[in-house]
Specification:
Arc Repressor Mutant, subunit A, HTH-type_TetR-like_transc_reg, single chain, 11 helices, Homeodomain-like_sf, 195 residues, mainly alpha, globular
Length: 195
Amino acid sequence: MILEAALDVFSANGFRGATVDQIAETAGMSKPNVLYYFRSKEAVFTALIARVMEVWLDPLRLFDAEKDPESEIRSYIRRKLEMARDFPRESRLFANEVIQGAPNTGVFLQGELKDLVDEKAKVIRAWQRAGKLRQVDPYHLFFSIWATTQHYADFDVQVRAVLGDGLSGEGRFEDAARYLETLFVKGLIIDRDQP
């Protein structure tokens, strides 16, 4: 209950703007009760960010070298959009943390995340060597997919405002998936039938 409340507070206010009082109020608890379970705001944030990071890497962990690059890229885009749809608070929490210079997640970014991205960059390069993908920098490819998919969580208010009443419902994620699949797949997959 405390971590759910903390997710609301931290994702809305960032680490600096959040207080234990706000977390307690959101959780419907007293501040001493929160501090009984977590010694400080930092302890709450550390527990929360560890939980979020575990889930956050799942779509990339599933990126499979043994599968067809087109289907894997499509699947990865869809998994990332599902994260944006289903976990918008977590996305905003992560974005706020990175914007602040990653004071609480720098070790994670330079360690576990970097190692996983390095591993998946090798998958992209293997597909390129096999003539299945155009020669693009794998790291910038991942950055681009992250930026375009997480936009739908981090800037949801903007997306809804621009799309308007008719297009801003749940169907916006399917529309986004089709667009992003076209953008990335058409730009990356080598069509062997074309001269």
